[in-house]
Amino acid sequence: QVQLVESGGGLVQAGGSLRLSCAASGRTDSTYIIGWFRQTPGKEREFVAAITWSTGVTYYADSVKGRFTISRDNAKNTVYLQMNSLKPEDTAVYSCATRGRAGGYGYWGQGTQVTVSS
User: Fold this and answer.
1) By CB neighbour count within 10 A (0-12 exposed, 13-18 middle, 19+ buried), where does 78 fall?
2) 102 CB-side CA count, 13 A
3) Nearby residues of 71 by Cβ (< 8 Å), 6 or more positions away
């Protein structure tokens, strides 16, 4: 079992910044990649960014490239999502998730709300 706890969400004006954190605990030794996803009511969950746990290779959705940066602190078992130049369309519940080398994302956090006002 892996437990994930997100934090750092909140209300920010357009153009502002927020940094989300995803703290992992439990059986993290099999974690290969940690990803951030977001979802708004009535829409499907959307991939935002991901990072490989051991090598730090990063992946981004086109909609956030150049604005968001994902990073990790292996000593703290924490992944961060630095979000700059936020837009109202970035408003969503942001969740982190982990998966091993095979299969899908199996462990999810509870999510943190990000609201960007215009």
Assistant:
1) middle
2) 0
3) 51, 56, 79, 80, 82
Q: Residue 55 class from Cβ within 10 Å (0-12 exposed, 13-18 middle, 19+ buried)?
A: exposed
Bridge partners (DSSP) of residue 7 are 21
Provide the CB-side half-sphere exposure for 100 (13 A, CA): 8
The closest of 117, 115, 118 to 38, measured between CA atoms, is: 115
Model confidence over 70-107: pLDDT tens digits? 999 999 999 999 999 999 999 999 999 999 888 889 99
Residue whose structure tokens are 């030794």: 29
Which tokens belong to 89?
């369309």
DSSP for residue 86: -
pLDDT-derived band at 27 (thresholds 50, 70, 90) equals confident
Neighbours of 86 (CB within 10 A): 22
